[in-house]
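Render this sequence as a predicted structure.
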Amino acid sequence: MEIPEGKKIYFASDNHLGAPTMEASRPRERKFVAWLDHVKQDAAAIFLMGDLFDFWFEYKTVIPKGFARTLGKLAEITDSGIPVYYFVGNHDLWMSGYFEDELNIPVFHTPQEFTFKMNTERSRSTFFIGHGDGLGPGDKGYKRMKKVFTNPFFKWLFRWLHPDIGVRIAQYLSVKNKLISGDDDAKFLGEDNEWLVTYCKSKLKQQHYDYFVFGHRHLPLDIQLNANSKYMNLGDWIQYYTYGVFDGSTLKLKEY
Protein backbone atom coordinates (compact mmCIF):
# COMPACT_ATOMS: atom_id res chain seq x y z
CA MET A 1 0.00 0.00 0.00
CA GLU A 2 1.36 3.38 -0.98
CA ILE A 3 0.93 6.19 1.53
CA PRO A 4 0.43 9.60 -0.13
CA GLU A 5 2.54 12.45 1.16
CA GLY A 6 1.07 13.94 4.33
CA LYS A 7 -1.16 10.92 4.97
CA LYS A 8 -1.01 8.33 7.78
CA ILE A 9 -2.18 4.82 8.65
CA TYR A 10 -4.29 4.48 11.81
CA PHE A 11 -4.93 1.43 14.01
CA ALA A 12 -7.48 0.94 16.81
CA SER A 13 -8.84 -2.07 18.70
CA ASP A 14 -11.12 -3.38 21.43
CA ASN A 15 -14.01 -0.95 21.78
CA HIS A 16 -16.46 -3.59 23.06
CA LEU A 17 -19.45 -1.41 22.19
CA GLY A 18 -22.59 -2.63 23.88
CA ALA A 19 -20.87 -3.62 27.12
CA PRO A 20 -21.78 -3.71 29.88
CA THR A 21 -24.99 -2.25 28.39
CA MET A 22 -25.79 -0.31 25.24
CA GLU A 23 -26.55 2.83 27.25
CA ALA A 24 -23.37 2.61 29.31
CA SER A 25 -21.19 2.20 26.23
CA ARG A 26 -22.75 5.09 24.29
CA PRO A 27 -20.33 7.77 25.61
CA ARG A 28 -17.45 5.56 24.50
CA GLU A 29 -19.11 5.14 21.10
CA ARG A 30 -19.45 8.91 20.71
CA LYS A 31 -15.79 9.34 21.62
CA PHE A 32 -14.77 6.73 19.05
CA VAL A 33 -16.86 8.38 16.34
CA ALA A 34 -15.21 11.70 17.22
CA TRP A 35 -11.83 9.99 16.80
CA LEU A 36 -12.88 8.68 13.38
CA ASP A 37 -13.86 12.23 12.41
CA HIS A 38 -10.46 13.41 13.64
CA VAL A 39 -8.29 10.86 11.82
CA LYS A 40 -10.20 10.90 8.53
CA GLN A 41 -8.65 14.31 7.84
CA ASP A 42 -5.27 12.74 7.01
CA ALA A 43 -5.93 8.97 6.94
CA ALA A 44 -4.59 6.94 4.05
CA ALA A 45 -6.27 3.91 5.66
CA ILE A 46 -7.81 2.84 8.95
CA PHE A 47 -7.31 -0.60 10.48
CA LEU A 48 -9.81 -1.78 13.09
CA MET A 49 -8.27 -4.69 14.90
CA GLY A 50 -11.26 -6.50 16.35
CA ASP A 51 -13.79 -6.53 19.18
CA LEU A 52 -15.38 -3.32 17.97
CA PHE A 53 -18.53 -4.83 19.45
CA ASP A 54 -18.81 -6.84 22.65
CA PHE A 55 -20.97 -9.24 20.67
CA TRP A 56 -21.73 -9.45 16.97
CA PHE A 57 -23.49 -12.25 15.14
CA GLU A 58 -24.88 -12.04 11.63
CA TYR A 59 -28.03 -13.91 10.86
CA LYS A 60 -28.92 -14.12 7.17
CA THR A 61 -31.17 -11.06 7.35
CA VAL A 62 -30.55 -9.69 10.86
CA ILE A 63 -27.68 -7.97 12.69
CA PRO A 64 -27.57 -6.87 16.35
CA LYS A 65 -29.51 -3.73 17.19
CA GLY A 66 -27.59 -0.52 17.86
CA PHE A 67 -24.23 0.97 16.86
CA ALA A 68 -25.88 3.31 14.34
CA ARG A 69 -23.38 6.11 14.96
CA THR A 70 -20.37 3.87 14.40
CA LEU A 71 -21.72 2.04 11.36
CA GLY A 72 -22.90 5.27 9.77
CA LYS A 73 -19.52 6.94 10.30
CA LEU A 74 -17.67 3.96 8.83
CA ALA A 75 -19.94 4.05 5.77
CA GLU A 76 -19.27 7.77 5.39
CA ILE A 77 -15.50 7.20 5.57
CA THR A 78 -15.40 4.40 3.01
CA ASP A 79 -17.78 6.32 0.73
CA SER A 80 -15.28 9.19 0.79
CA GLY A 81 -12.60 6.87 -0.60
CA ILE A 82 -10.64 6.10 2.58
CA PRO A 83 -10.16 2.33 2.92
CA VAL A 84 -11.04 0.66 6.20
CA TYR A 85 -9.89 -2.86 7.06
CA TYR A 86 -11.39 -5.03 9.77
CA PHE A 87 -9.87 -7.96 11.68
CA VAL A 88 -12.34 -10.05 13.66
CA GLY A 89 -11.69 -10.49 17.37
CA ASN A 90 -12.85 -13.11 19.83
CA HIS A 91 -16.10 -11.19 20.44
CA ASP A 92 -17.05 -10.69 16.80
CA LEU A 93 -15.90 -13.93 15.19
CA TRP A 94 -19.21 -14.34 13.41
CA MET A 95 -18.92 -11.72 10.68
CA SER A 96 -20.03 -13.13 7.36
CA GLY A 97 -20.68 -10.44 4.78
CA TYR A 98 -22.42 -7.40 6.29
CA PHE A 99 -19.30 -5.23 6.55
CA GLU A 100 -18.21 -6.16 3.03
CA ASP A 101 -21.62 -5.71 1.41
CA GLU A 102 -22.96 -2.69 3.28
CA LEU A 103 -19.83 -0.78 4.35
CA ASN A 104 -17.30 -1.83 1.69
CA ILE A 105 -14.91 -2.95 4.46
CA PRO A 106 -12.78 -6.07 3.86
CA VAL A 107 -12.90 -8.44 6.84
CA PHE A 108 -10.00 -10.70 7.80
CA HIS A 109 -10.31 -13.75 10.05
CA THR A 110 -6.57 -14.42 10.31
CA PRO A 111 -3.49 -12.18 10.68
CA GLN A 112 -2.23 -10.59 7.48
CA GLU A 113 0.97 -9.12 6.09
CA PHE A 114 0.98 -5.57 4.76
CA THR A 115 3.73 -3.49 3.19
CA PHE A 116 3.50 0.30 3.37
CA LYS A 117 5.54 2.69 1.27
CA MET A 118 5.63 6.47 1.10
CA ASN A 119 5.25 7.58 -2.50
CA THR A 120 8.15 10.01 -2.04
CA GLU A 121 10.57 7.40 -0.68
CA ARG A 122 12.01 4.06 -1.70
CA SER A 123 11.92 2.48 1.74
CA ARG A 124 9.19 0.03 2.63
CA SER A 125 7.88 -1.08 6.04
CA THR A 126 6.48 -4.56 6.56
CA PHE A 127 3.67 -5.16 9.08
CA PHE A 128 2.17 -8.32 10.54
CA ILE A 129 -1.33 -7.42 11.73
CA GLY A 130 -4.10 -9.26 13.58
CA HIS A 131 -6.38 -9.21 16.60
CA GLY A 132 -4.03 -11.44 18.57
CA ASP A 133 -6.33 -14.02 20.15
CA GLY A 134 -5.24 -17.66 20.01
CA LEU A 135 -1.66 -16.87 18.98
CA GLY A 136 1.47 -17.97 20.76
CA PRO A 137 1.93 -20.60 23.47
CA GLY A 138 -0.64 -21.57 26.09
CA ASP A 139 -4.32 -20.63 26.36
CA LYS A 140 -5.30 -24.08 25.10
CA GLY A 141 -8.78 -23.80 26.60
CA TYR A 142 -9.60 -20.71 24.54
CA LYS A 143 -8.10 -22.24 21.41
CA ARG A 144 -10.40 -25.26 21.78
CA MET A 145 -13.37 -22.97 22.45
CA LYS A 146 -12.59 -20.90 19.36
CA LYS A 147 -12.68 -24.02 17.21
CA VAL A 148 -16.20 -24.70 18.50
CA PHE A 149 -17.34 -21.11 17.97
CA THR A 150 -16.07 -21.04 14.39
CA ASN A 151 -17.36 -24.49 13.48
CA PRO A 152 -19.98 -24.14 10.69
CA PHE A 153 -22.26 -26.71 12.31
CA PHE A 154 -22.39 -24.90 15.66
CA LYS A 155 -22.93 -21.55 13.93
CA TRP A 156 -25.80 -23.15 12.01
CA LEU A 157 -27.33 -24.39 15.26
CA PHE A 158 -27.05 -20.94 16.87
CA ARG A 159 -28.85 -19.35 13.92
CA TRP A 160 -31.92 -21.41 14.81
CA LEU A 161 -32.29 -19.35 17.98
CA HIS A 162 -34.50 -16.32 17.55
CA PRO A 163 -32.22 -13.22 17.42
CA ASP A 164 -33.88 -11.74 20.52
CA ILE A 165 -32.90 -14.87 22.44
CA GLY A 166 -29.51 -15.57 20.87
CA VAL A 167 -28.15 -12.04 21.20
CA ARG A 168 -29.43 -11.68 24.77
CA ILE A 169 -27.81 -14.95 25.87
CA ALA A 170 -24.50 -14.07 24.21
CA GLN A 171 -24.42 -10.56 25.71
CA TYR A 172 -25.17 -11.93 29.18
CA LEU A 173 -22.40 -14.53 28.99
CA SER A 174 -19.90 -12.00 27.64
CA VAL A 175 -20.40 -9.58 30.53
CA LYS A 176 -20.92 -12.30 33.14
CA ASN A 177 -17.55 -13.85 32.36
CA LYS A 178 -15.75 -10.49 32.35
CA LEU A 179 -14.64 -10.97 28.77
CA ILE A 180 -14.46 -7.21 28.20
CA SER A 181 -11.20 -6.76 30.03
CA GLY A 182 -10.57 -9.11 32.90
CA ASP A 183 -8.11 -8.36 35.66
CA ASP A 184 -5.51 -10.66 34.12
CA ASP A 185 -5.67 -8.81 30.80
CA ALA A 186 -4.86 -5.50 32.48
CA LYS A 187 -1.57 -6.67 33.94
CA PHE A 188 1.77 -6.51 32.18
CA LEU A 189 3.27 -9.97 32.59
CA GLY A 190 6.85 -8.97 31.79
CA GLU A 191 8.35 -9.24 28.34
CA ASP A 192 9.45 -12.85 28.82
CA ASN A 193 5.93 -13.89 29.87
CA GLU A 194 3.92 -11.94 27.28
CA TRP A 195 2.69 -14.66 24.94
CA LEU A 196 2.24 -12.30 22.00
CA VAL A 197 5.84 -11.15 22.41
CA THR A 198 6.89 -14.82 22.37
CA TYR A 199 4.81 -15.32 19.24
CA CYS A 200 6.37 -12.31 17.48
CA LYS A 201 9.91 -13.43 18.31
CA SER A 202 9.09 -16.87 16.94
CA LYS A 203 7.79 -15.32 13.71
CA LEU A 204 10.98 -13.28 13.36
CA LYS A 205 12.99 -16.50 13.20
CA GLN A 206 11.11 -17.34 10.00
CA GLN A 207 10.77 -13.90 8.39
CA HIS A 208 11.55 -10.28 9.18
CA TYR A 209 8.78 -7.79 9.93
CA ASP A 210 9.36 -4.18 10.89
CA TYR A 211 6.21 -4.05 13.00
CA PHE A 212 3.76 -6.42 14.68
CA VAL A 213 0.43 -4.80 15.57
CA PHE A 214 -2.19 -6.56 17.70
CA GLY A 215 -5.11 -5.84 20.01
CA HIS A 216 -6.83 -8.28 22.38
CA ARG A 217 -4.60 -7.63 25.43
CA HIS A 218 -6.42 -4.41 26.44
CA LEU A 219 -3.05 -3.05 27.45
CA PRO A 220 -1.05 -0.42 25.52
CA LEU A 221 2.37 -1.93 24.86
CA ASP A 222 5.27 -0.71 22.74
CA ILE A 223 8.12 -3.23 22.86
CA GLN A 224 11.32 -3.35 20.83
CA LEU A 225 11.83 -6.97 19.80
CA ASN A 226 15.27 -6.39 18.29
CA ALA A 227 17.17 -3.57 16.65
CA ASN A 228 14.86 -3.57 13.61
CA SER A 229 11.49 -4.89 14.77
CA LYS A 230 8.81 -3.62 17.15
CA TYR A 231 5.69 -5.11 18.73
CA MET A 232 2.76 -2.83 19.54
CA ASN A 233 -0.44 -3.66 21.37
CA LEU A 234 -3.12 -1.06 20.82
CA GLY A 235 -4.73 -1.10 24.27
CA ASP A 236 -8.49 -0.50 24.28
CA TRP A 237 -11.32 2.04 24.16
CA ILE A 238 -12.65 1.13 27.59
CA GLN A 239 -9.92 2.50 29.83
CA TYR A 240 -7.02 3.78 27.73
CA TYR A 241 -8.45 5.18 24.44
CA THR A 242 -5.16 4.47 22.71
CA TYR A 243 -4.42 3.95 19.04
CA GLY A 244 -1.49 3.47 16.68
CA VAL A 245 -0.42 5.83 13.91
CA PHE A 246 2.16 5.20 11.19
CA ASP A 247 3.44 8.18 9.23
CA GLY A 248 5.45 6.21 6.72
CA SER A 249 8.59 5.98 8.80
CA THR A 250 7.60 5.59 12.47
CA LEU A 251 4.82 3.77 14.32
CA LYS A 252 3.68 5.53 17.48
CA LEU A 253 1.16 4.74 20.22
CA LYS A 254 -1.04 7.70 21.11
CA GLU A 255 -3.98 8.48 23.40
CA TYR A 256 -7.14 10.24 22.24
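Summary. Residues 223 and 231 are 5 Å apart (CA to CA). The radius of gyration is 18 Å.
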